[in-house]
């Protein structure tokens, strides 16, 4: 902040604050899940604190419609990384903000969120590090780590059902990143909780992670997910139809999960997902000299050779998606942007310059698919053809 801006009057600051709230969305208070059933289940975050969510009540025609959105934030794959996570908002509700802004798919304004604005909207906070699959009864007396993500999922669902979700006429679970994986892994379970007459669907935003070797030829992500599943005792919450034929870690990957899901599912993903490029294709350990540093911070800085590798990644991503079949109930919005998560940010979800495929915004595509107005299955042309992209540029800590 420049020195001169410190002298802005309190009145002008208030106007700015209100403008920011309007732009960023409705502020919603936190709810801690401390019910007797949740306590009895041992449904707690990594550090033993109560799980939490934020609920904005529906209104008008949306009072019996529910959107349950799962927060993202990666995973911890061993005791060391889970201990680090335990001290943050991704492992403890004690570290979470007590109020957060709802925007994008969570907005309560029809101009910003035309199909879901007046629904009951929930953002489930993420504090287990396993996409809500962990379940280990014993707590190590030394680390005091609690691996209870699956119990958190059930406790939150029970709490929401008791608050009216059991009467839902429409329901959608969604999530970003690790939350997008959650919406895949728990899609059919969510459907099973709701009335048979309800329209129930699932949306995964940036959650379709693929089993790709990194640029050094190592299967880094497969080994990582295997460690996640082992550490968290997740195997019991993965489909036995998968774990009976593949190593459990591979059953954490959507390409080995999605074709078994019965509930309608919409996959929203960038073909050059920036998280996957930075952490699966080019993790730091695969690029000691830093040859890829500029490229993976800004796709416009990639060399011709690096772009060929990225196009190969896109090819493998599209192949993994294609292997899931093209059921009429499946939605697809696969654009060629360098970005990660597109449903929570207003400018990406629905605005005057949002990303589009076939002249259709993400919000319009998801809404038309959910309400069966029209199917939507579109895949973008290769980078750099899409002028509607909001490509992410990351700060490079190596630069002065």
From TrEMBL:
Keyword Nuclease part of the UniProt annotation: no
User: What enzyme category does the UniProt record give?
Assistant: hydrolase
Localization, UniProt? Secreted, Cell wall
This enzyme's EC code(s): 3.1.1.-
Q: Which InterPro entries match?
A: PAE/NOTUM
Where does it sit, as one GO cellular component term? Answer: plant-type cell wall
In alphabetical order, the GO MF annotations are: pectin acetylesterase activity
One Gene Ontology term from the biological process aspect of the record: cell wall organization
Instruction: Specify the domain of life of the species encoding this protein.
Output: Eukaryota
Q: Where is the signal peptide?
A: 1-25
Q: Which UniProt keywords apply?
A: Cell wall, Cell wall biogenesis/degradation, Hydrolase, Secreted, Signal
**Protein role:** Hydrolyzes acetyl esters in homogalacturonan regions of pectin. In type I primary cell wall, galacturonic acid residues of pectin can be acetylated at the O-2 and O-3 positions. Decreasing the degree of acetylation of pectin gels in vitro alters their physical properties.
> What is the similarity comment for this entry?
Belongs to the pectinacetylesterase family.
Question: Any idea what this protein is called?
Answer: Pectin acetylesterase
Species this chain originates from: Panicum virgatum (Blackwell switchgrass)
